[in-house]
Design brief:
By secondary structure, the chain is mainly alpha-helical. Among the domains are: 29 residues; 81 residues. The chain is built from 7 helices and no strands. Helix 4 packs antiparallel against helix 6. The longest helix is centred in the first third of the chain and has 25 residues. The protein is elongated, with a radius of gyration of 34 Å. The mean pLDDT is 80.
């Protein structure tokens, strides 16, 4: 067996062709030569172009999203990483980016995240973890935007969390007091 399948295919064509064996037009150049590289590049280009044309004829490119529409934000500013940003937006990926930007985003939604926690120890750990990451990001000299996110006072965040929690409990209590209590279905009178 030969290592080069193109050479084996050429030998097969030469052995099974109606032409004379001395016709050298069907034999490809030796592998590794510049002519062989050009031959293979031209062959690959022809195969790719044929596959594209067949797919167009089958209609595989007809109903693609964004067909016939301009590419969004194409001519605004030159950004070499435009495709990365668009992929992050379309896939809604999180946790990617410089620490300074990620900490700013987390800082903006920290109260909502803390409100989802049920115990004071969990809130305390979350705020301490946030502060630790802010301080660590300030110490690193990785480049990128500067870290301007402030650290949070743990006790002040705990007090604010307690106030928000009590306000939610009071509003729930008001809603339940306004509506008459419903009896369970098994204790309702039959009628």
């Amino acid at each position: 067996m030969t290592d080069d399948p193109r050479l084996a295919a050429a030998r097969y064509r030469a052995a099974h062709s109606d032409k004379a064996e001395d016709d050298e037009s069907t034999v490809p150049p030796p592998p590794g030569s510049p002519a062989a590289r050009a031959y293979s590049a031209a062959d690959r280009a022809a195969v790719v172009e044929t596959a594209i044309q067949q797919a167009i004829r089958r209609g595989e490119f007809d109903d693609l999203p964004g067909a016939g529409k301009p590419i969004p934000s194409l001519g605004e500013t030159h950004d070499p990483d435009w495709w990365i940003r668009r992929k992050i937006e379309t896939e809604q990926l999180t946790g990617l980016g410089p620490p300074a930007l990620m900490l700013r985003v987390e800082n903006a939604g920290l109260e909502a995240r803390l409100d989802g926690l049920g115990h004071e120890t969990d809130v305390r750990e979350a705020v301490e973890d946030f502060n630790r990451r802010v301080i660590e990001a300030r110490r690193q000299l990785l480049g990128g935007p500067p870290v301007v996110t402030p650290t949070r006072d743990v006790e002040a965040e705990l007090a604010a969390w307690r106030e928000r929690r009590e306000a939610r409990a009071a509003s729930i209590a008001e809603e339940t007091d306004a509506a008459p209590p419903r009896r369970p279905w098994w204790r309702r009178p039959r009628g």
